[in-house]
Amino acid sequence: MNYAGIKYCDIANGLGCRTVLFVSGCRNACKGCFQPQTWDFHYGEPFDEKVQQEILDSLAPEYVQGLTLLGGEPFEPENQEALLPFVSRVIQKYPQKNIWAFTGYIYDRDLIPGGRKYTKDTDKLLSMIDVLVDGPFCEELKDITLKFRGSSNQRILDLQKTRKSGKIITFLE
Fold first, then answer.
1. Residue 91 burial class via C-beta count within 10 angstroms: exposed 0-12, middle 13-18, buried 19 and up
2. Dist. CA 34–CA 24, nearest whole Å
3. Which DSSP helix (H) or strand (E) runs through 5?
4. Is 35:169 a contact under the CB 8 Å cutoff?
5. Is the pTM of this model over 0.70?
6. Tally of CA atoms within 13 A in the half-sphere of 170 that contains its CB
7. Which residues does residue 157 pair with via DSSP β-bridges, in sequence order?
8. Which among 25, 6, 140, 117 has a CA at the least distance from the CA of 72?
9. Are 128 and 87 in contact (CB under 8 A)?
10. Any alpha helices (H) in the chain, and if so which ranges?
11. Is 91 helix (H, G, I), strand (E, B) or coil?
């Protein structure tokens, strides 16, 4: 997997101060996407051990609340496969930190068994994510007043409560 960028001490992509990993590769190709360069799976740099260690080190300060995954698209099958062992390392080293992820796919349609982006890694990866912002960016529904979303069709899911209850439970709404 390649990554398009990393932001440290970011406050725009989840609650609190966070480290944000922008992965490369996305097949959604949403009209009006704010980073279409990240659609290319070869864009950016390799997500190697050195970069992974830098991200892990950036999470050490107490004031950093957690890690956010976005892109590109973290839930493209090849990205899920690469992110699963890394997110496992984050959780193992920092169990008190939270994980947010953004996806253009719809949780209860695309990321469930039989869904178009469901893989052998999906359930395990989802089990480690606290908050999932789902749904494609829709330019005609763009709303800059929304927190942590670009368009009004997107949802902010409390993923752990959603998975436990079997029904969609939103976060911050």
1. middle
2. 14
3. strand 2-10
4. no
5. yes
6. 10
7. 132, 170
8. 25
9. yes
10. 49-58, 77-93, 107-110, 122-127, 159-165
11. helix
Joined tokens for residue 76: 């493209």
What residues contact residue 35 under an 8 Å CB cut-off, 6+ apart? 4, 22, 71, 72
If you search the block for the tokens 């976005």, which residue do you land on? 70
Residue 65, H or E segment:
strand 64-71
> Residue 62: what residue type?
E
Q: Which tokens in the block code for residue 51?
A: 């970069």
pLDDT in tens, the chain (173 residues): 999 999 999 999 999 999 999 999 999 988 888 888 999 999 999 999 999 999 999 999 999 999 999 999 999 999 999 999 999 999 999 999 999 999 999 999 999 999 999 999 999 999 999 999 999 998 999 998 999 998 999 999 999 999 999 999 999 76
User: In degrees rounded to 5, what are phi and psi of residue 9?
Assistant: 55, 40
> What is the C-alpha separation between 5 and 165, in angstroms, rounded?
35
DSSP string, 112-140: STTSTT--TTHHHHHHT-SEEEES---GG
The predicted structure's pLDDT at residue 173: 60
Rg (CA), the chain: 15
Contact residues for 116 (Cβ-Cβ < 8 A; gap 6+): 105, 110
